[in-house]
Amino acid sequence: VFSNDPTIPGDEGLLRRIHAQQLVPDERHSGRVRVSSAAFRDVELSIVIKSTLLISGRQPADLLQTHPNHALVAITAAKARSLNQAVARDPELDEPAHGVVHGRKSKKCASELANSAEWVVPSEAPAVAR
Amino acid sequence: MASMAEIFIDTAELTRAQCGILATPPAADYIDQLSRFERRSSAESWRGRQTQRERTYFSRGQTLTLRWRDSGQALPAWFDPVMQGFAELITLEPNWDSYGGKAIDRPTIDVAMALLDTLLGPASPAPSIVPLSSGGLQVEWHRHQQDLEIVFEPRLAPEFFYKDARTGVEEDRSVYPHLALVTQLVRGLE
Q1: What is the pLDDT of residues A72-115, one digit of tens each?
Q2: Coil vs helix vs strand at A76
Q3: Which of A19, A25, A107 sits opposite B128 (nearest CB)?
Q4: Record: contact B172-A70, CB cut-off 8 A
């Protein structure tokens, strides 16, 4: 069980890889895709804490080096907390910046997390695949 | 109804068990029911002159060919996008999401196909077919400032979430007890 870590500031970027299959057409931006809420349903949602990543001398794009079918997006710790989620550090051997957004996620919660996601890599929404 | 659909992958004929969801009885029924959309008004006329049909889908280096028999009428516009969407799920390997995501559960795909068969009309817009890390899937539409998502978790009854940004109306319920409502919501997306 993870408890909320108050040392993670509200404006902290929480990075998550998104598989291409979890991108859906965005009605608000014709011809572009957005992240499906399906990418934010896990009770223990794995993320990478951006500031910890940067301290280790790496860049967000490095998270995609071995994942060519993925994009990278960021939500904020404040947004997750506003949806009754705990944000915690969970360092792993192969990813010391690993963290978790922990909590039951209703469909509305997952949808709000997806809607709040900002593009990191690529820097703007990709075009819908033809 | 007996299966009239066969699926071939990489040109090799597979057994039903190997073929995956597109050749399972629910899927075959799904395909057969799809083909009935435009013949409902002339149900007697098509029975005597069925033809062999075939559709091929490509996903991650695999070729999935769907074969069935019907009267040769036009398929609804959503047919190919939806079937391609399911093909994309079938070919996902474990850990597809890089976070330990499970391969998509075949019985869950069958449940989703059967429900779409019930919900979609000839003019319905095609939903996006999206995998879940749990091995489930989600079908979703985002049109006319409305969001409709139906979530299929393995071994659980499907649930839906609907939000209309125009009115502020939200619904978060189980699908089957509210099938008429979900059908109405899908038709409202046309």
Answers
A1: 999 999 999 999 999 999 999 999 999 999 999 999 999 999 99
A2: strand
A3: A25
A4: no
How far is residue A32's CA from residue B12's CA, in Å, rounded to a whole number? 37
Q: Which of A25, A67, A107 lies closest to B98 in CB terms?
A: A67
**DSSP secondary structure code for residue A92 in this structure:** B
Q: Cα torsion for A88, A92, A94, A95, to the nearest 10°?
A: 10
Per-residue tokens: A115: 């809607």
pLDDT, tens digit, 9 for 90 and up, residues B22-51: 444 444 444 444 444 333 434 444 456 788
Cα–Cα distance measured from residue A77 to residue A64, given in angstroms and rounded to the nearest whole number: 21
pTM over 0.90: no
